[in-house]
């Protein structure tokens, strides 16, 4: 019998704390933990319960631990999760009866009843809401990429849309990386490929009876299907059919105009950590573990932090960071915002006078792919490690040139004084060392003369 | 019959809460133990009792069975000494900032050590409730823990935390546990800590020494009087070595021994007989059998209580409703009492010619 199978007996904490009116669950948990001389993080994990011990605190467990009825807690505390999740746009029109089992129509709102485990079923996928809302009706709507769950006009949860079992036909090709054991995981089962391919990507497809594993179009293995059909719906990242999860490139998002503050430039991109949390102005804000690794857009509006993705509002949190911290926020950390496209750089600072320009210096690209110029580091690219590149600062643009071609261009980060100081006292050693690239110098440098 | 109806209700309530398995080592179980004051059921007039039928008879039977499973606590001399000495020590420790005095109750199994310290705890908690009336859920004046076998400091801390109701998972380390326990004990005004099964502590082992140090640390952090109880701790080496000397210098020892066949024993038997609620039992039967009972139980109050309660339940179930020597003979006892009875019997038998 596994330890998880043993039913857990919850007991009230020795010191009870009365919830304050309109207090958040997180605040109440912190006060409860401190009153009982426990670390708030520890108590929060305990309240989340097995098997994951993280996420939103379970109100039913909290009710037992604080020795108060669940209804009292729900009335006193402001939301089932750590904070209320208001949405600027309540759901549009509500259709009355639930349309269970039908395919989802984007934009249409349907009712769903929350199961005893806090889940709803929608369009063939299962979505978590909150165990505290078990038995209650919620409203669900979806777009092409996300599913939003409302109750009483309040946004409770936003999840990436999961592929439906009805919509996932056999034959979907997905990428899998081969484990060190030479096997891959697919739909909850493992299939052997070859130990020699460990670490490489293979493509997997599945028919009704067989699982086929390819690499570069070549069939590697064929196995009888071992996973149940229901599991196949949850296979991640279908690469051949369907659309992959939206990952934003460094370009501005096409729907960024829908985000408040988009014009004022106070929208910044953040990459969601593996814990489902982003860091913003020194505080961390939860987005949701399903969004881990994806880019989201964050803006602060009137004391609330709003997190968007593709123009869709994912989460809203009360501001937890001091306003003064916002001034020090880097507008964009994930996508090197000061980088300038080569076309723009060419237009602003042509390379015609490169040979005669006295401002051009040579730099050796360091093992990180960066180079030092006027007291600042500029990224050249890892593929240029060990190579000598030409660097010039013109019109406020730092240009990195290799082989006569512009490889990168950055907005100037150094001050003019730094640049003047650099040009006044050029690093002779660096200049000499940079005269030859490392690779070239190794080839050209004659070896020590061998004595006969 | 108001008394019978209330007894029946109490019995039904007891059956309803039977599934909860409250233990003394949790604060809920301890509070239930403190609040528990079993009232002896009133015997009906003989004619009325015989006319009871069906559910009424069953309920009356069950109420008396439930009462005889506990049969109350008899105030022995050891129990009185523990309560009096303990109260005196608590008053002495009231303003002590360090080196608080404690008490160790030591004796053979079945001599009433646990009963003595739990009754002392119950007495103190009732006094504390009188001093601080009101809801008072945030006061835990008495903590009762048992030393687990092969204990480590963390296990001991977890025992304290379990009593208090602090959630402890595998990820909590010993520092977290001890900090939480000490903080909560301070906030809840813990004044008496009862540590049972102290003989599980072997100071000769590293873990045992560490657990002893942890107990010492608890006694420094928590302004409470510590009362230990264990089987023959003075012989088990608890007072040996440096740690043992420190323990011996601060803790008074109250030995609990088997009762000699004396007036106190006769008083005990009479008290038990008074507590019996059997319809056809003739008062004075057990008092006349006091020597026999002493031989059977070896003077152990635990064995005596077990023997009389078992015999009373047997008398109720069989319908005889009286205790006799024949019935008592049929009740099996613990091995120690049985061995004592056999030894005494052999000694009294004349040697074969």
Any idea what the shape of chain A is?
extended
Major pleated sheet of chain A: 4 strands, antiparallel
Please count the helical segments of chain B: 16
Tally of contiguous helical segments of chain A: 10
Runs of chain B with pLDDT <50, length 5+? none
Straight-line distance between termini of chain A: 77 Å
Describe the structure concisely.
Chain A has ten helices and 24 strands. By secondary structure, chain A is α+β, with helices and mostly antiparallel strands.
What do these coordinates show?
The complex is a heterodimer of chains A (452) and B (353). Chain A is an alpha+beta fold and 452 residues long. Chain A is 16% helix and 28% strand. Chain B is built from 16 helices and five strands. In chain B, helix 9 links the parallel strand 3 and strand 4. Classes of the chains: A alpha+beta (452), B alpha/beta (353). At the A-B interface, helix 2 of A face helix 8 of B.
Overview features:
heterodimer; A: 452 residues; alpha+beta; four-stranded antiparallel β-sheet; 24 strands; disordered N terminus; disordered C terminus; B: 353 residues; alpha/beta
How are the secondary structure elements laid out?
The complex is a heterodimer of chains A (452) and B (353).
Chain A: H1 25-35, H2 40-48, H3 59-66, H4 70-76, E1 110-113, E2 119-122, E3 125-128, E4 137-142, E5 146-151, E6 154-160, E7 174-177, E8 183-186, E9 189-192, E10 201-206, E11 210-215, E12 218-224, H5 229-232, E13 268-271, E14 277-280, E15 283-286, E16 295-301, E17 304-309, E18 312-318, H6 323-326, H7 342-348, E19 361-364, E20 370-373, E21 376-379, E22 388-394, E23 397-402, E24 405-411, H8 416-424, H9 428-434, H10 438-444
Antiparallel strand pairs in A: 1-4, 2-3, 4-5, 5-6, 7-10, 8-9, 10-11, 11-12, 13-16, 14-15, 16-17, 17-18, 19-22, 20-21, 22-23, 23-24
Helix pairs in contact in A: 1-2
Chain B: H1 2-16, H2 27-35, H3 46-51, H4 54-70, H5 77-92, E1 102-107, H6 113-131, E2 142-146, H7 153-164, H8 174-187, E3 192-196, H9 206-221, E4 225-231, H10 241-250, E5 251-256, H11 263-275, H12 285-288, H13 290-297, H14 301-318, H15 325-329, H16 335-348
Parallel strand pairs in B: 1-4, 1-5, 2-3, 3-4
Helix pairs in contact in B: 1-4, 4-14, 5-6, 7-8, 7-9, 13-14
